[in-house]
Amino acid sequence: MNARRDSTDGPENVDELFAEIVAGLERDGVGKDWLDLDEASPESDLDRTLAARVDAADDVPAEPVDEPERRDRDDEDHYVPPEPPPFPVLRASTIAALGLFVLGIVLLVAPGLFGLESRIGTPLSLVSLCAGVGWLILRMRNTPPPDSGWDDGAQV
To answer: What single-letter DSSP state applies at residue 138?
Structure first.
C-alpha cells in the first residue's frame, strides 16, 4: 500500500517532456548564436578571427606606455605609533587584591608552608582566589581617566 505509486504529481516520462521543452525553445530561436561543439572544426571562424586580430596588432607600432614612477619603500611615509603611556601607580587596595590572589595560589599549591593540611588549605585558597579576583573586578573603572581631556576617543 504505497500511496506514492498511484501519485500523478509529475509526468510519467520525463525524457519526452524535456525533449518537448528543448524543441519549443529551439523553435523560439533560443541558442542559435551558440557554437555547436559537434560541428566545430579544429580551426573555426572564431579562431581565424582572433588570429587575424593578433596579426593586425603585431603590425601596429607600439606606443610608449607611461609608467608611474617607482618609489622606494624606504621613501614612503610610514605611521610610527607614539610611545605608550606608562603604567599607572598601583594603589594600596590593588596591591592588597593582588596579595590575596597570590596567597590563594600559594595555599592551593603548598598549604604545608602555613602548617595546614590540604583539606583545610584548599577551601581557604579558593576563598582567597575568589576574593582577590572579585576585588580586582570591582575596582575596574568605567569612566575615562580624569586627565584624558575633552576627546574620549572611540568607546565601546
So the answer is: H
Report whether 108 contacts 116 (CB < 8 A): no
Q: Is the pLDDT of residue 1 over 50?
A: no
Q: What is the pLDDT of residue 153?
A: 66
Helix and strand element counts for the chain (H, E): 4, 0
Reading the block at residue 106, the C-alpha cell is 600559594
**Nearest Cα residue to 132 out of 101, 104, 90, 106:** 101
The sign of the dihedral angle between the CA atoms of 19, 23, 37, 53 is negative
Residues whose CB falls within 8 Å of the CB of residue 135, separated by 6 or more in sequence, listed in order? 93, 96, 97, 100
DSSP string, 47-70: HHHHHHHHHHHHHSPPPPP-PPPP
Residues 6+ apart with CB under 8 A from 120: 111
**pLDDT recorded at residue 102:** 94
Q: What is the pTM of this model?
A: 0.41
Three-state DSSP state, 131: helix
